[in-house]
Amino acid sequence: MALFSLFLFIFTLFSIITLSHQQPPLDPTEQQSLYKVLHSINPTIPWPTLFPDDLCLSSPHGILCDYPLSNNNYSHIVELNFGYVSDETPNPPCSLNSTLNPLLFTSFPHLQKLFFFKCFNQTQKQISFPTNITFSFSSNIQELVFIDNPSLVIPLSSIIQNFTNLRRLVLIGNGFYGEISKKVDNLVSLEELTLSGNNLSGVVPTSLDKLGKLEIIDLSHNNLEGCVPESFGNVTFLVKLDLSYNRFGCRIPESLKDLQSLELLDLSFNLFGNFGVPLFLGEIPSLKEVYLSGNLLGGMIPEIWENLERVIGIGFSNMGLIGKIPNSMGFYLKNLTYLGLDNNNLVGPVPEEFGLLKFADEINLENNNLSGRVPSSIKVVGEKLKLEGNDGLCVEEKSRCSDYNNGCSFSQLKQCNYKPDMDLLNAVLFSSGGVSLLPFHTLILLFVSMGLLFVFT
Fold this sequence. Notes:
Pfam families: LRR_1, LRR_8. This protein has about 450 residues and is of the alpha/beta class. The chain has two domains: about 80-95 and about 110-415, Ribonuclease Inhibitor (Leucine-rich repeat, LRR (right-handed beta-alpha superhelix), Alpha-Beta Horseshoe); about 420-455, no CATH class. Helix content is about 15%, strand content about 20%. The chain is built from eight helices and 23 strands. The strands form three sheets. Strands 1-2-3-4-5-7-9-11-13-14-15-17-19-21 form a 14-stranded mixed β-sheet, with no helix packed on it. Strands 16-18-20-22-23 form a five-stranded parallel β-sheet, with no helix packed on it. Strands 6-8-10-12 form a four-stranded parallel β-sheet, with no helix packed on it. Helix 6 links the parallel strand 22 (about 390-395) and strand 23 (about 415). The chain is elongated. Mean pLDDT is about 85; it is low at about 5-20, about 405, about 425-440, about 440-450 and about 450-455.
């Protein structure tokens, strides 16, 4: 056993030595630049002391190199990931005094991915950004990701260059501001454009349809305005379109019906109004989630659900909707997990067909003008059948409240009073010719009983 362990040690050592000879060293210029960049990210860590050797062979997690086939070349940095994400991905941690060293943008020409997570979050201290600088990695960068860096307050145009191979531009929860300039049109390889949670303003360029590979457009939580470009309907491969929490107005473009791969459409909390729920939604068979809440579109909920059996989420809250809830929503939307119809002006009963929604986690019908009995067939997981604020609704028996939601989230609803079913009574009392089928004294007793029931209920 000891001999085997010795052999394994020698083999491993030999492999490391052999591998080190096969892998050319990191370009010395990149090595020294990387030390300076790491120092700007976290000056509390003695990086050269902890990692004195070739940073391609021994480096912090999150720093990756490529290895040229020829031994005559240097290795190069291809990925830089900064900011602690989890124990599984312990990237170089950022400090409270993190800054951006310009060498980051000029010293790594082979860089393919640059990632920052919660590195610049001291909002009282804005981080400067080099202007009028040519990024050395423009032709190679594929992913540019900045997440939750609110003190990074710079114009969006400063970071968008002629990145011809960029596939993902993800800037979430930062301080980027200004307009989405037509520079974006140059990102011809872009598959994801996520700019949510910044301070962007102005209108969206109509020329985004030139980015024919786009699958995700997320511009949510900004200050964008104007109309949603009709040209969005030409982004053929689009799977997600999220424009929520902006100031878009005009009309929701009907061209969106041409997005036959679209799975998520979120236009909630904008300024769309007075045009009703778009009928073209029923023509997007791939649709799984649609959210229009917070837009006063008005009108009735249309009958468009027959071809939308894949839908799992609908948000139609606070939209000024009127009329009844279509029974067809319960009949066709068998996979629905969330339905929000609260804070509208809907009337009529809760559809009995909602009892078919076996996967529903939440059905929110609060603050409408619904009336009638709550169907006992509705079973919603998680006590989330929300019905309060509908004074006309009632439940059959308070004692059966547990039959609904394992605790009953609508326990404040009144109990239904018993009233004779007049249609059934007429069927019993009279034949089709209007002639009584019961003796006269029996009729008298029935009418007296009905009178007593009305008095005591």
